[in-house]
Design goal:
two-stranded parallel ribbon; globular; 7% strand; single chain; 169 residues; two-stranded antiparallel sheet; mainly alpha
Length: 169
């Protein structure tokens, strides 16, 4: 989640969605985004794999969105909330819009996608220290062939969603 005024957004027009950027480019943008006084405020919420397995992916995503908005505390009646894909903010945010491929179309969504990707990658790199045999520092949790082999060899960690990996066990 990220918040910025329309005037602030203009200076970020060159940013691209996180998937179009290399890790180094994402890190460079991230450092600019987190600088004080740049006009962007953001919040990141992670959901545990066990919660996703218990509650389901969609309720978990809705919970993360609600937590992120709560951290940012915008006025639900005076805020415009732009969301990527099929996401939805809590109902009290009356001025919300879901945009398919929003991270490629809206600067603020691209900013949020960069922040989320860098924060998640950094989390996975920290988790590599705890679970080095999985190679999280290389694939950062994505379903690469190497990651799948590690799961087959070593089993699941608490980081893995059992519901997603059910065919690998």
């Amino acid at each position: 989640m990220a918040i910025a005024t329309p005037a602030t957004i203009k200076k970020w027009k060159k940013i691209k969605e996180s998937k179009q950027l290399s890790r180094a480019q994402r890190e460079g943008w991230y450092e600019k985004i987190i600088e004080k006084g740049n006009g962007v405020t953001f919040a990141v919420s992670f959901i545990l794999a066990t919660t996703i397995d218990k509650d389901g992916i969609n309720p978990s995503i809705r919970s993360a969105i609600a937590r992120g908005l709560k951290k940012l505390s915008p006025d639900p009646k005076d805020s415009r909330v732009l969301l990527d894909g099929g996401l939805k903010a809590p109902d009290e945010f009356i001025n919300q819009e879901t945009i398919i491929r929003g991270d490629a179309k809206e600067t603020i969504i691209a900013i949020a996608s960069v922040v989320a990707k860098v924060e998640r990658d950094r989390l996975m790199i920290r988790m590599h220290k705890k679970y080095p045999e999985y190679g999280f520092d290389r694939h950062v949790g994505y379903g690469t062939a190497g990651h799948m082999c590690a799961i087959k060899k070593h089993g699941l960690t608490p980081l893995h969603r059992k519901s997603y990996c059910k065919n690998l066990r």
